[in-house]
Amino acid sequence: MNIRGTTKVCGIIGNPIKHSMSPIIHNYLAKVKGLDLVYVPFETTNAVAAVAGAYELNVLGMNVTVPHKNAVIPQLKEIDSLAANIGAVNTLVRVDGGFKGYNTDILGLKRQLELENVPLKDMDVVIVGAGGAARAVAFLCASEKVKSLTILNRTVSKAEEIANNIKQVFEGFNVSAYTINDYSVLENEKKYVVIQTTNVGLHPNNLEAPIYDKTFYDRVLYGVDIIYNPSKTKFMQLVNESGGQSFGGIKMLLYQGVLAFELWTGTSVSEEEANEVLQLLKKELNIDE
Ligand code: NAP
Questions:
Q1: pTM to 2 decimals?
Q2: 142-158 burial string, b = 16+ CB within 10 Å, else e?
Q3: What's the rounded Cα separation, in Å, for the pair 111 and 178?
């Protein structure tokens, strides 16, 4: 590209950063939109100095990745309410006097579910896992008014902690927490939306699933695995074998980037453009479908 004095800068802070797919997403979108914008990786251990420095250097927008998604929050001028509840921010948008923080990871999942016609409102939802991603998904479920939420995790105390945190914000919300082996608490006559957020099944452990029992999968109407490599996880395969519809995690990755780009530039990315980015991501990640 032709970098000039007018070129706007966006970037990503994290450590490590070399594996990031974000430069591919944003530089491609800047090119197809004909924008005078470049996106670069910034490896840093100091999130506080990085946010202040980015503002001074007139940076338009930033992504934030591991391990800084919590540490940047006190440095923000404003924060989106869903991101504040989750307690993690992955996108900073320049505003007057500082940056506003968003969590486009979770907004990306929200957009994916909307586009794939997977409902949340009034549904009985199960989250498998209780790590950082599960916490964000749980707050999304509460803000989208699911009928009930069941969190299943190997370490039950982490699932309970998320459930308690949500109840403090969304009073009366119907959420319960169990160990992963207690999936038989799910009711036989009900069909659930299940969102798989553990690391189990991640490449190269493609043949692993967090639960193998068919009676669990028989209760799944929609099964969403947020893992994107492999593109079809064992969890997804088991959902399909029991007659449910399954979805993988690459579109969550795609739309977290698309939404950040839209917030920074005020442009709207078409589904055709988003699909072009998706093909680039698949190529980069060696995912063929
Ligand atoms: P995390 O905070 O480390 O949480 C990991 C979760 O996996 C915990 O619930 C953990 O249970 C569970 N787990 C790990 N090994 C397990 C095992 N052998 N058996 C049962 N449970 C196990 O990680 P995270 O940040 O939430 O990320 C989780 C996954 O989401 C990763 O695979 C990541 O790639 C994916 N992700 C995808 C996107 C996307 O854009 N598609 C975005 C974010 C994350 P314990 O609590 O018992 O340890």
A1: 0.95
A2: bbbebebbbbbbeebeb
A3: 28
